[in-house]
Design goal:
single chain; Methylamine Dehydrogenase, Chain H; alpha+beta; 34% helix; Immunoglobulin-like; five-stranded antiparallel β-sheet
Length: 624
């Protein structure tokens, strides 16, 4: 716009934010438009979402300089920024005029009503959301000129948003980035400038910058001393060479002329060609020639220089992984490039991880889980203990299963919800201890219990969950009571084992149990790395029966030649801290003459499975 047609009336700098907005209004200005005799609004808007934006719809409430409504009925202007393609962290709008209600507008309230993404998604904004004021921010000036200079010396990357504030955490609110943006607590990168949270908190501090500044000064002094020693040694070598050169020059001239004149010409040509290639930035081709003549002139030094320059080019092209390999070829003897190469290796590692985190997040957002998993593997290849990789796995778990499974669970589709959670196991995620997965699988197991014959008993006694075959997913064991108190025909009870197979929970195996009723079931370690299904049952009014089942050849089979029967029901539990359950039997104490079953002494015997077809006695104790 022409300067003589527009007059700047007021600058707008927002000191508040809305948590749910996918865009941020960084600042703006009110201008008087002379040709139209009206006031227009210009805004600088930043995309702080993780997707490209195509349209933004806003409403602008207009007021005079006293805060009064401009028009009673038409006080609000609606405007849309359309036909955009704004990437995350990029800005728009600062060259677009938004005409307001009339030329007396001096104050505005701006609200974002909805945002349309490039992929077609639409996000509507609740304009009644609470305004969040940005907490007090500490200017970077408190560091002083010396430390600010050190910060800009070591700054890792260029960014369109300048460093203006000391980053800090605001309890129960979020954290403030060095660009001034307030972010959610869970955000790992600033939604405005994209800077890494951990990195800036580590670097932009008085303690770190003072240490960095002092180390750099020591390094500079070291370089000066080394250069002085180098010059001294060079002078000494020159003197020695002059003394000996005259006596041997003739012999060498004759020898070289006879034997080496042709190879030397070739080496000279290769060396000259390499120098030209280096000057033209063709470092890979220059390296091929220099590596053929490593002993010629200063080829060794040039090889390290070429590797460094090639690495810098690859780094600029964002090929960080290859760049790291080239930087590593710069040795400690290279005073000129070694320190910088080591620093750039760490920078490339961070940028490589950051790039793959971004790509993985984009793939996760686009439901491209295999591609996202490949980016996670790239991060792990560089850093096997990477926190970023673990965070991405967690994000992918949420994306793949949690949202879908939660919806299925809310619809009481517990089997489908459990099956959805089970898909996460292929991403090396611990599902055996996953609370949400356990909860929906338990509800599915409860639905499998035949409640016809269990009267008022707790249905949870009739099923259990556990990883009986050590495959990283939970199986469901259900005790099916078939007999009826009114029936004279004995029908054996069954134990059914359901397993996640080919994307579905299906019946894997069925085995008969000779108890008349189930008291409790547990899936736990039976011996070594073998897990088993422990079943405590009842026979008649007082007697107890205990069984143990294991997986063999893909079937649930009894681990004992016969069940352990006793006069009274008895517990199954861990008694010696070995994380292995023990079976038990409870009998009348033969030495007790009291004939009352209720008060008489009893003998409780504990058994361990021997790993074959029987048990061994672990402990005997007297009880009442």
């Amino acid at each position: 716009m022409a300067e003589n047609e527009y007059t700047n009336i007021r600058h707008i700098d927002l000191n508040y934010w809305f948590k749910e907005w996918p865009v941020e209004i960084i600042n703006g200005s009110l201008f008087y438009d002379a040709p139209c005799d009206n006031v227009v609004l210009q805004l600088k808007v930043c995309n702080i979402s993780n997707k490209n934006i195509s349209s933004v719809y806003i409403s602008v409430e207009c007021f005079d300089d006293a805060g009064g409504l401009m028009n009673k009925d038409g006080n609000t202007v609606k405007y849309s920024f359309q036909d955009l393609d704004v990437k995350p962290n990029n800005t728009f709008g600062d060259n677009i005029d938004v005409p307001l209600t009339n030329k007396n507008v001096r104050k505005v309230n701006i609200n974002v009503e909805k945002v349309v993404y490039k992929n077609g998604d639409i996000q509507k904004i609740n304009i009644d959301d609470n305004v969040n004021e940005i907490p007090e921010r500490t200017k970077i000036d408190v560091l002083g000129n010396m430390l600010i200079g050190e910060l800009y010396r070591i700054k890792l990357e260029e960014n369109p948003y300048s460093i203006e504030f000391i980053p800090k955490v605001v309890e129960e609110v979020g954290w403030i980035c060095c660009c001034g943006r307030l972010n959610n607590t869970s955000a790992l990168n600033c939604c405005r400038c994209g800077r890494d949270k951990v990195e800036q908190f580590n670097i932009i501090s008085k303690e770190y910058l003072e240490k960095s500044y002092n180390n750099y000064q020591i390094y500079q002094e070291k370089i000066k001393v080394e250069e002085a020693m180098k010059r001294k040694q060079k002078v000494k070598k020159i003197r020695t060479a002059k003394i000996t050169l005259a006596s041997i020059l003739l012999v060498f001239i004759i020898f070289i002329s006879i034997r080496y004149i042709k190879p030397t010409v070739i080496k000279k040509q290769q060396y000259g060609s390499a120098i030209k290639l280096l000057d033209r930035g063709k470092y890979d081709e220059a390296l091929l020639r220099l590596q053929q003549i490593p002993e010629y002139k200063d080829s060794k030094a040039l090889i390290e220089k070429a590797n460094y320059q090639f690495a810098m080019k690859l780094m600029g092209d964002k090929d960080y992984f290859t760049s790291i390999g080239k930087f590593k070829k710069v040795t400690k003897t290279n005073v000129e490039f070694y320190a910088s190469a080591q620093k750039n290796i760490e920078l490339c590692k961070k940028q490589f991880i950051k790039l793959n985190v971004t790509l993985a997040n984009n793939d996760i957002s686009g439901n491209k889980y295999e591609e996202a998993n490949n980016h996670i593997k790239e991060i792990v290849k560089l850093d096997s203990r990477s926190v970023d990789a673990k965070n991405l796995e967690s994000v992918m778990t949420n994306k793949i299963a949690y949202l879908t499974a939660t919806t299925l669970s809310d619809d009481h589709k517990y089997k489908e919800a459990a099956e959805t959670y089970a898909t996460c196991s292929k991403y090396d995620i611990d599902m055996v201890n996953n609370t949400e997965y356990i909860n929906v699988l338990g509800k599915y197991a409860d639905s499998l219990v035949k409640k016809t014959y269990i009267n008022q008993e707790d249905p949870s006694n009739y099923y259990t969950l556990g990883d009986i075959d050590n495959d990283g997913l939970l199986e469901v064991a259900v005790y099916e009571r078939n007999s009826s108190l009114a029936s004279e025909i004995y029908i054996p009870n069954n134990i059914k084992l359901f397993k996640y197979i080919n994307g579905k929970y299906s019946l894997m195996s069925t085995v008969q149990n000779d108890s008349e009723d189930c008291i409790k079931m547990n899936i736990s370690k039976a011996k070594g790395d073998v897990n088993g299904l422990f079943v405590s049952g009842a026979i008649g009014s007082h007697s107890g029966s205990q069984s143990l089942y294991i997986i063999k050849d893909g079937e649930l089979v009894s681990a004992l030649d016969k069940s352990i029967n006793s006069v009274y029901p008895s517990p199954i539990k861990e008694i010696d801290g070995g994380k292995i359950l023990e079976l038990s039997s409870l009998e009348r104490d033969p030495k007790d003459t009291d004939s009352s079953n209720r008060v008489g002494s009893k003998i409780l015997t504990w058994y361990k499975w021997d790993g074959k077809r029987g048990v061994t006695t672990a402990k005997v104790e007297q009880t009442h």
